[in-house]
Every structure is written in structure tokens, then in C-alpha cells.
Amino acid sequence: MLRQIGILLIFFEEIRDRKLSLSKSAVLCFSELHLAFQKILFLFEDCTREGARLCILMKSHYVSTQFHLLIRTIATALDVLPLSSIEVSCEIRELVELVAKQARKAKLEIDPDDDSAMKRVILILNQFENKFEPDPSFIKRVLDYLEINNWSECHREIRILDEEISLECLDGSERELPLLSSLVGFMSYCRGVLFEAGPYGAFDQTVGVCDHKLLQFLESRGFSLPDFARTDDRSGDREKLPNTELVPNSTLRKLIHQFCADNGVSLSKSRNTNRDITRTIIACSPAAGGAIELLSDFLANRLYNGTREHKNKGAYEIRLLAKSNIFNRSCLIDAGTVPPLLNLLDSTDPTSQVNAISALLKLSKHDSGKKAIVENGGLKSILSVLKRGLNLEVRQISAAIIFYLSSVHGYRKLIGATPGAIPALVELIKEGTSCGKKNAVVAIFTLLLHHPNHQKVLEARTVPLLVDILAGSHTDELFTDSLAVLSTLADTMEGSIAILQTPALPVIICVLNSSATRAGKEYCARILLSLCNNCGDEVVSSLAKDTSLMNLLYSLVTDGTSHASKKARLLIKILHNFQETRSSQLTTRAAVPQERFIHVT
Residue 255's pLDDT is what? Predict the structure, then answer.
């Protein structure tokens, strides 16, 4: 194929160099050739894509068919090309005719070695499906053929397969989902078992519950089209993109949804409900399920009986696997990985501690994981890391685990009753990064759902720190979460008094007047209403002096959420009543002196 394309290149260059005029039919043929060559280029790029070796191997028949169809398309375009009307040399014309003839007769067959390797993979997948552990040497033959020689290359294959799965779910077809999931299970098994020894790569993951950290870098123009993509103004046709790095559609889609949610923009739901592979509670294929179950047992054994390096590597693999989907978490929990991970928290090695706590964070998102952590005495270990972790990162992750554990009603009481738990979270608000502060704030918020914890949160002097967050420059998410905690505390008399002991009132009004999220403005209205109800005229008189507040409340009535609108109306009523009462009192006071000066004879 490459030789034939090279011959056609000579033909095209001669037409270009001689600046020959072409008929409409010739232009149409060249357009068809251009489209076919584009598709061939895309196929070549897919076939040579780094990390897609296994995926391309298992799609060999499809790829071969696509190449065959494109070659036939080229043959058809050359057949109808009016060569006689194009003034090129006889030698070039004969070569083009030869290419057309060869393209018509071309037969593409799968390489026998590729076919053998593909059959080996299918056999391995069948063994996984039957929960039979494959022979490592047999798997090694496949990996050697694909030149997957280390942990990093294996991990890269998994990432490419995950991207393919995301695209498959996004399209809604899911036709190839079972195969792709099986291949992910196969590669995950290889990564965890066969590449146990040797170096393994760094893994970037968002820590804790800060799942939308990227949003702080997005501006409103971040979702606009580049100038050259606009149809209303063509002045930017030749403008270059400042950054050519591509972002996966699935990632961009999640960011757009979160951006719209935070800014009160509603999105119409698609008729086709796309499947979220991360939320699947069963394996997408029997082979994938079998591979993950076998791998989970292997990792649990390593955590119990392995060397220190084996345990560290096992915790790291669990950290990766548990991030993928609910099914993986379930398998890892059932295999008994939670107790040894809790033991690993006592490690003096910072890497082991961060891998163990990160793995537990992922497992704590599963109901069985929460139960396993608490029933195995893990709460004490996690709180110990929260207070005295080897670095700030592990402390912040432990706060996120507290957040997930406190989603269970009974555990809120248990955590709140543990000495030092709430003060440790408050300390993290002081010292943590934006993500760590958020982890601590949302953990405190869930603990407040157990009412006896209110007093402990107030005693830990949480309120001044939250007000400082509102007065500082932090992310919208942290703003909103801090307001949520303050609004919950303000519901009680003690909480309202604690808030009034800080410069909270002007700060809250300032937030209400800013570009805060709709949820944030609702929390502001709720706080002000609670302060008025609990502390009376002292607060109302202060609010009445702010001339901008009434306009803000009216704006909230019309543009806010239903809850925010209701609270704003109540606040307006309170302020109106206060103004009327004060006016009445002023009138009465003005009348009394006049009566005293009446002369009585």
C-alpha cells in the first residue's frame, strides 16, 4: 500500500508543479482520493498509537476490512479519473493505471503471527471467565509478542482501553464494551501479578472529595470556540491554537456538567442515557469479573504475607483498581484487603502510608468498605493519620475518609464521640491546601447531621475559620461548603451567637452581592434568616442599615432557587416589619413632647 501511495504522490506532485487545470470530474475524483487518504492516515495513526497494541491486535479483522474497503475506494476513484484529460507524461499515466489495477485485485490478510497471538488472548480470557488462573508463561508469550515489557507499558495499555470504553459509553452503542472490559481485566491482572517486581510509575489522582479541582482554572471563555471555528466572523481563519493538547471528550463533558451545575445553568438531558462504567456494580463481562477476582485474591495475599515492598506495591495496585468502578471495590473488599491496608497505616514509610490511605479512601466509597473499616477498628487508625500523618497529603485523604464514613448515620455519633476527631478536622482547615480544607469542611458538615456534634464543632472554634475562608480568596466550592456548615450551625441559638462574635454579617452580605453560586446565595439567606430569628433586633437593626441588602433579597426572590426565594421573602418581611415598627415608635416619640407643652388653665 505504501509503495502504491508513493507512486500516486509522484502523480500529484507533477500536477501541482505544472499547475495543470483540471476538469470538474477530475476535481471530484481527487476529492474522493483525498478523503480516502485521510481515512487511511487515521487508521495508520490508530494502529501505531502508543499503548494501543492489545486493542489493535484484537481488532485485526476490523482493521484489515477497513484497509481493504479504502483501497477499493482508491481503485474506484482512479478508474473514473479522466486521465486522458490530464496532461502528464505517459510513464506517470501508466503507473497510475497500474496502481488502479493492483488496487482492484488487492487482498489483505491478517498476519499469521497476529492471528496466533489473538487466539492466545481469547484462550486466556476464557480461562478468566471460568475463574481458572492462567499459566504466567503463556501470558508472557502474548506480552512479549506485543512488546509490553514493564509495568508502565502495561498501565498505558489499560489507560487507552479505558478511553475506548468511555467513548463507547458516550456513543451509547456499548457493542464492544464486553471485549474492551475483558481486555482491561486481562491487562490489570498482568500489571498486578506479572509486573510485580521492578519499578512502577507515578499515578496522578485527585485526593479526597475535590473531584472538580480543574474548574478553578476555567473561565467563561474556556468553553468558547476558537476563532477559526466560528462561522460568523472569518477573520481568524489562520489563527493558531495557543495549546494543541487534546482533552478527551468524556473528561470535557464532565467538566462542562460541573461548570453548569455550579453556575445554575440547566442542561437538557439526552434521550439516550449514557452508561457510566464507574458506577457498574457487576462486571461488564465474565472474563473481566474473573480476572479482577483472581487479582484481588492475589493482592490480598501479598498484603498479608508479602515483603514490605510487596505490600507497598499491593496497596498501590488497589489504589488504581478501586478507582475504576464499584465492582472492583466490591471484589477487593470481599478478598479481605481492608484489614492489612489498615495495618499498613502504621508504616514509617511515607509512600506506603499514602498508598494505603489512598486505597482505603477508594474502598470507603463502597458501603461494604465503610463497614469493613469500622468493624476492623479502622476508625482509630484513620483518626491517628488525620492527627499525626507523616505528611499533609495523608492527613487530607484521611479527612475525606471521615467524610465518607460519616455518611452512615450510626458512624456520625461514633466519630463525634471519639476524642480529638473534630478538633483534628478543624486543624486541617487551618493548615490544609484548598482540597484539604474542603475535605475537612465537608466532613464536619456531615458530622453536624448528628445534632449532638454541634456543640463540639463550636467548641473547636470552627466558625472563625469558616468566616476567614469567606473573607479570603478560595474556590467557589470551598465557599459554598463553608456557607453550608455555617448555615447548619446558625440554626441553633449557640451557633448564631458564635457567628455574631465574628465579623460574619458584612462578609455574608458581601458574598450575597458577589458572583457566588446559587447554592451559596441560598445558604447566605438561610444564615441571615436564622440570625434574625435567634438573635432578634440586634441583627435586624444591623441588616436594616445596609441599603444594598433589600435589592439583593428581591433579586434572590426572582432569580434564586425555590428555597432561597422563600427565605428571601421571609427576610424581606422581617425587615419591613422592623422598619414599620421603628417608624411607628419615632412617630409616637415625636408626639409626646408636643402634648407636654399644652397649657392647661
Answer: 55
112-151 b/e with 16+ CB inside 10 Å = b? eebeebbebbeebbebbbeeeebeeeebeebbebbebeeb
The DSSP call for residue 269 is P
Cell representation of residue 412: 456520625
pLDDT digits (tens, 9 = 90+) for 381-391: 999 999 999 99
For the chain, the maximum distance between any two Cα atoms, rounded to a whole number of angstroms, is 137
Cell numbers describing residue 548: 444594598
| Cα dihedral: 370, 373, 378, 384 (round 10) | -40
Q: Are the C-beta atoms of 516 and 474 separated by less than 8 Å?
A: no
CA of 240: how far to CAs of 90, 237, 577, in Å? 42, 9, 61
Mean model confidence pLDDT for the chain: 84
Indicate the burial class of 570 (C-beta count within 10 angstroms; 0-12, 13-18, 19 or more): middle
Helices then strands (H, E): number in the chain? 30, 0
Task: Tell me the one-letter amino acid at 578.
Answer: F
263-272, 313-322, 577-586: least confidently modelled range: 263-272
Report whether 522 contacts 563 (CB < 8 A): yes
Q: Are 508 and 487 in contact (CB under 8 A)?
A: no
* Coarse DSSP helix, strand, coil percentages of the chain, rounded to the nearest 5 percent: 75, 0, 25
pLDDT surpasses 60 at 257: no
Dihedral, CA of residue 461, residue 465, residue 468 and residue 473, to nearest 10 = -170
Is residue 357 within 8 A of residue 392, CB to CB? The reply is: no
For helices 2-18 and 24-47, the axis angle rounded to 10 degrees is: 140
Which residues lie closer than 8 Å to 161 by C-beta, 6 or more apart? 54, 55, 180, 183, 184, 187
Could you give the dihedral angle defined by the CA atoms of residues 585, 587, 591 and 593, in that order, rounded to the nearest 10 degrees? 60
Contact 383, 374 (CB under 8 A): no
Q: Which helix (H) or strand (E) holds 178?
A: helix 177-189
Lowest mean pLDDT among 232-241, 309-318, 587-596: 232-241
Q: Cβ distance 340 to 352 under 8 Å?
A: no
Q: 305-330 burial, b if ≥16 CB within 10 A, otherwise e? A: ebeeebbbbbbbbbbbbbbbbbbbbb
Q: Please state, in angstroms and as integers, the Cα–Cα distance from residue 189 to each residue in 140, 194, 196, 247, 355, following that order.
A: 12, 8, 10, 28, 19
> What is the rounded average pLDDT of the residues 171-185?
87
The pTM assigned to this predicted structure is 0.81
User: Can you tell me the distance from the alpha carbon of 262 to that of 215, in angstroms, rounded to the nearest whole number?
Assistant: 10
User: pLDDT grade, residue 395 (50/70/90)?
Assistant: very high
Sequence letter at residue 499: I
Angle at 447 between CA 441 and CA 453, to 5 degrees: 115
d(CA 412, CA 433): 25
CA dist., res. 375 & res. 369, Å (int): 10
